[in-house]
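Entry type: protein chain
Record version: 2
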Amino acid sequence: MNKIKENKTYSFMGNVAIILFAQIMVKVLGLVYRMVITNIDGFGDAGNGFYNAGFQVYTVLLAISSVGIPNAIAKMVAERATLGDYRAAHRIFRTAFILFAAIGFICAAILYIGADLIAVYIVKMDGAQYVMRALAPSIFFVCVSSVIRGYFQGLNDMKATSFSQMLEQVFKCGLTVVLVLLTVGTMPEIMQLFTRITMLYNDISGFDSTPPEIMAAWANAASSIATMISFAYLIVFYMRRKKGIDEQIRRSAVSDLKTSTGRLMRSILMLSIPISLASIITAVNRVVDLATITRGIEAAFAEMIPARGGAAAIFAPTAEQLNDAAVTLSGMLSKSDTLFNMPLALNTAFATVLVPSIAGALARGDKKEASEKTSYSFLISILLILPCAIGYIVMAQPLYNIIYPAAPDGADLLALMAVALIFSALTQTLTGALQGIGKVYIPAAGILAGCVCKVILNVLLIRIPSINIYGAAVSSIVCQLVAFLVNFFVLIRYIPLRLTFVKYVAKPLVSGVIMGAAAAGVYKLLYSLLGSSGYMANLIAALSAILAAVVIYTALILVTKTMSKDDILLLPAGGKIYSALQKTGLYK
């Protein structure tokens, strides 16, 4: 019995490690290319504004068409595979592939054809339509790729997901930088031709430099190309395992899945839609966020917009100047979003693996295993995210000076958003657990309640000139807090979580605060010793402070024994880690 439990634990944490590595790589590469293109001459905050606006609209259709697919397919396949019914599992896969290929094509067409209407009348950011058209093809390829990923997740194989995501991000990173660089200055004739054909943009040969909206569009065209390459890899991955899959099907128990294809499609949708709802609501909220920002900025700056052209322009700004201000401020918020999402990658692994793992445990009737995995994932989420959030609060400006030297404004937005990061990560883990136990509507209800609060606060706060764009950050904190509370109080009714205040809150928080104070002190001391000026002085001081923070936080977690022996042994290579700690005398 112990050996079986050890194998289950190894499988769970092994899959977590695979997804974790992939997510870290994806987010690091994402930060790299956003950093590079932001600092390219002509892109800056304006380019980020168009990039963000088009991408948020794309995310809505992507959420509608594909976000719930991997977890829904993984849950259905895992339940069948646990019972030895691989024939039914593969039928679910085939049916889902056909279904979501059609849905992906329709959503891609809607985004491409409706781009002008959405950009001009909904988000009120003329120029964002070119980004939307560049992204439209990727919706189809993400849809069909998600079905393949979900199928293999359900079979407890995370390699398809992790490797395809890494491959996609490698190509996305490289192609984004290359394509944006090709647009700098006078755009080459071949780039102009493709721009006019694919993005329906007028001839730009008369411009002295490429407009930021076209630079942003080409940055996102790289995403579409990368998703095509990722899909091609997944097809190869599937074909190489086809023989083994066929063998499983031949040995499979007689399937009791006798439902028609139409009914099976409805069953898949009935599961994937609720799972997608939370992401759909979040994505729609971001578009509403964007729309309220553009309208709120117009109200806030109607008589004090930082426009150029003298007093007349400042006190009576044109629609174009108001649009430029909204684009720039949205771009500032977008930079904080990029860094905000990086720590969440550390947490995504647990949320991803929890769904099929808990579904499989409950299919076996093992409620204790489901509880243990959820409690442990919750602890790791806290230990990973809390120091990241505190680090952002104390190191926001140094990080901006390193990553965005050509556009360092808006670091205080990141410091505010860091508070929301804590609740966002914990909600992510709780969402995976709730989906695993079949409570698929609860995460959607939680984020909907949070989004309602966010929209109300956006409308009230952003229009105040002294607050303006910072109102969006404040409302994000409230949104994530509300979503977390709804998810948490519902989950504990169904899974008894073993959470104690000292272990899960007090010890990590005290360790994080001491770490933050130490990091701020190290940075200020080194920066002053190095002359308090220049990019290299800031880089050396910031990296030294981050390194000191990692060492201090890790030492404090170990000294306070926040993680028990059992917690450490659950980690990948946990036995070796615990043996090393025993030699230090910290654990016996």
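Comment: The chain has two domains: 1-36+322-499, 43-249.
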